[in-house]
Design a protein that fits this description.
heterodimer; A: 272 residues; mainly alpha; ABC transporter involved in vitamin B12 uptake, BtuC; B: 244 residues; alpha/beta; three-stranded antiparallel sheet; 9 strands
Chain lengths: 272, 244
C-alpha cells in the first residue's frame, strides 16, 4: 500500500507503472508467435546483439534506443538470412551472433566514459529509470506491432501452422518470416528497458506460454498473454518497490511461477 | 469424363531433372495429366515422390526441363491446386479450431468472398472430406484420421481444379475414403494426383499409376505385377518393408 501512496507522489513511479502496462502489450502479441513458432533462441540472439548497437550509440553520442533498434533489426535480418541459406549451421551461427553482439557492445561501452551504470541497466533493466520519451517510443512500437499483427493475422497464422502449405497457396513465406523476426526485434527493444536483455526472454515467452495452455485460438492466446503480462509486470513492480528489490528479477520470477503453476494445474486437470 | 481431347494437359512435365545437392532425385521425367484423370504415384521412400509434388506446386524449380501447369508457368496456377501435405509435420498443439484451419486453405483465392459465403464453403469442404466432428474443436482433440480429413477439407476449400494428395491414407481407413467420388461430385475439380506408399490402395482406386524411383514410368494399374514391383523397389525383401 506504500507503493500506491508513493505512486501519487513520484513521477518516476508513474512512468514505471505506465511502462509496466505498455511494454507487455506488444510482447504478448509477438511472444505468442515466438512460442508457437519456437523462435525463443532467435529472440535471445536478437536481444543480446542489440548491446552492440547500444554501445556504438553511446560511443558516437546517438540516442541509445535508436542504436538498439538498428542493431536489433540488423540481427533479425541476419538471422532470417542464416535461417534460409545456412540452416545446417544455424545453431552455431546464431550463437556466434548472440555472443559477438554482447562482446562488441562491451567493447564499445568500455571506450565510453562512465559506462558501468549503463551496462548493468541494459543487462538487467531498470524500470524506474524509464523516461517520458521512452514511454512514447514504447507506445509507438506497440502501435506498429498491433497494426501489423491484426492486419496480417491470417497470413501469420498460416505461416505458423504450416509453412509449406502457405507457400503452396502463393504466400511469400520468406518475407513474412523476416517480418516476424523484425517484429520480434521491436518487441525486444521495448523490453530491454524494463527487464534487460538477460531476462527479457522470460517476459516474451512465459506469459504467452501460460496463455497458450488455455487458449482456443491464436487471438485468444495473444489477448491472454497481454493481460497476464501487464498483471505480472505491475505486480512485480509493486512487490519490489517497498523492500527495494531488483524489479526485473521480481517480474521474471512471477512469470516463471505463473507458468509453472498453470502447467501444473493443466496436468492435474488432465489426470483428474 | 469431363475432358475434351483437344484441351492442353493440366500438368505437363517435359524432361525434368531435379538434384538435391549432388544427389539426383529425379531424372528425365515426362508426365502429362489431363482433365478428368486420376493418377496414383508409387515408389520407394526417397524415390522422389514428394519432390515430384513439390515441383508441380512450384515450391521447387527443376534443374533442367520444363513444367507447365494449366498451360502456364507453375507459379501462376499454384492457387488452383488443392494440396494436402502429410499431416505428421503439423504442430498438434497449435491453438486453432478445425474451422480456422480449413479456412486457411482459402489464402490466395481470388476474388475474395464474403465471410458468410466463406463459412459455407468451409462447412461444405468438411462435409466432402467426411469430417463429422465439431468444427469448433481444437486440433489437439482430433485423432490422426480426423486431422487428415481436416487437411483434405483445407485442400478442398479453395475449390481447386487439381487435387494433390501426399500419402492420403496413412491414417484414414481405406474403405471409408471417398476421395475418388470427389471427381464426380465436384464440378470445379478436374484431376487428382495422389502419392502413396500403399500399392494396393493405388491399384484399387486409380486407373493410371506412375512408378517413381529417380525415373518415372507410367502404367495402367492392371499392369502392376511382381516383376514390375521388383524393378521399382529393387529386391523383393525391400518391397515387403515398404508395405507395412
Amino acid at each position: 500500500m506504500e507503493f500506491l501512496e508513493a505512486l501519487s507522489r513520484h513521477t518516476f513511479l508513474q512512468n514505471a507503472l505506465l511502462a509496466a502496462v505498455l511494454a507487455p502489450l506488444g510482447c504478448g502479441m509477438i511472444g505468442t508467435l515466438v512460442v508457437v513458432k519456437r523462435l525463443s533462441f532467435y529472440t535471445g540472439g536478437i536481444a543480446h546483439s542489440l548491446l552492440a548497437g547500444l554501445g556504438l550509440a553511446h560511443l558516437l553520442r546517438f540516442p541509445p534506443m535508436l542504436g538498439a533498434l538498428a542493431a536489433a533489426l540488423a540481427a533479425a535480418l541476419l538471422i532470417g538470412y542464416i535461417h534460409s541459406r545456412w540452416r545446417q549451421q544455424e545453431d552455431v551461427l546464431v550463437t556466434c551472433l548472440w555472443a559477438s553482439g554482447v562482446a562488441l557492445g562491451v567493447l564499445f561501452l568500455s571506450r565510453t566514459p562512465h559506462y558501468g551504470v549503463d551496462l548493468l541497466s541494459y543487462l538487467f533493466g531498470n524500470i524506474l529509470l524509464v523516461s517520458r520519451t521512452d514511454l512514447w517510443l514504447m507506445a509507438g512500437l506497440d502501435f506498429c506491432i498491433l497494426v501489423l499483427v491484426v492486419g496480417l493475422h491470417r497470413r501469420f497464422s498460416a505461416l505458423l501452422l504450416d509453412e509449406e502449405f502457405a507457400a503452396a497457396r502463393g504466400l511469400c513465406v520468406e518475407a513474412y518470416y523476416l517480418l516476424l523476426l523484425c517484429l520480434v526485434s521491436l518487441t525486444v527493444v521495448v523490453l530491454v528497458q524494463i527487464v534487460g536483455m538477460v531476462l527479457l526472454l522470460a517476459l516474451v515467452t512465459l506469459p504467452a506460454a501460460t496463455s497458450l495452455l488455455f487458449a482456443r485460438s491464436l487471438t485468444q492466446a495473444m489477448v491472454g498473454a497481454c493481460v497476464l503480462g501487464v498483471l505480472l509486470t505491475c505486480a512485480g513492480l509493486a512487490l519490489s518497490y517497498q523492500p527495494n528489490l531488483p524489479t526485473g528479477s521480481c517480474i521474471v520470477l512471477l512469470c516463471a511461477l505463473s507458468y509453472l503453476g498453470a502447467g501444473l494445474l493443466c496436468r492435474l486437470r488432465a489426470s483428474g | 469424363m469431363k475432358a475434351l481431347a483437344s484441351e492442353a494437359p493440366l500438368v505437363d512435365l517435359v524432361g525434368v531433372d531435379f538434384t538435391y545437392g549432388a544427389e539426383p532425385v529425379l531424372q528425365d521425367v515426362h508426365l502429362q495429366v489431363g482433365a478428368g484423370e486420376s493418377l496414383g504415384v508409387i515408389g520407394p521412400n526417397g524415390g522422389g515422390k514428394s519432390t515430384l509434388l513439390r515441383l508441380i506446386l512450384g515450391l521447387l524449380s527443376p534443374d533442367r526441363g520444363r513444367i507447365r501447369l494449366f498451360d502456364g508457368p507453375p507459379g501462376s496456377g499454384r492457387t488452383l491446386i488443392g494440396y494436402m501435405p502429410q499431416h505428421i509435420a503439423l504442430p498438434r498443439d497449435f491453438p486453432a479450431t478445425v474451422e480456422s484451419v480449413v479456412r486457411s486453405g482459402r489464402i490466395g483465392c481470388k476474388p475474395a468472398v464474403a465471410a458468410r459465403d466463406e463459412r459455407a464453403i468451409v462447412h461444405e469442404s468438411l462435409e466432402l472430406a467426411g469430417f463429422t466432428r465439431g468444427t469448433r474443436w481444437r486440433l489437439n482433440r482430433l485423432s490422426g484420421g480426423e486431422l487428415q480429413r481436416v487437411l483434405l477439407a483445407r485442400a478442398l476449400a479453395c475449390r481447386p481444379r487439381l487435387l494433390l494428395l501426399d500419402e492420403p491414407i496413412t491414417y484414414i481407413d481405406p474403405g471409408g475414403v471417398k476421395i475418388f467420388d470427389l471427381l464426380e461430385h465436384c464440378s470445379w475439380l478436374s484431376a487428382i494426383i495422389a502419392v502413396s506408399h500403399d500399392i494396393s490402395f493405388i491399384s484399387e482406386h486409380f486407373r493410371r499409376v506412375a512408378c517413381v524411383n529417380r525415373e518415372l514410368v507410367c502404367h495402367d494399374t492392371s499392369a502392376l505385377d511382381g516383376r514390375l514391383m521388383e524393378q521399382l523397389y529393387g529386391v523383393p525383401v525391400r518391397l515387403i518393408r515398404h508395405q507395412h
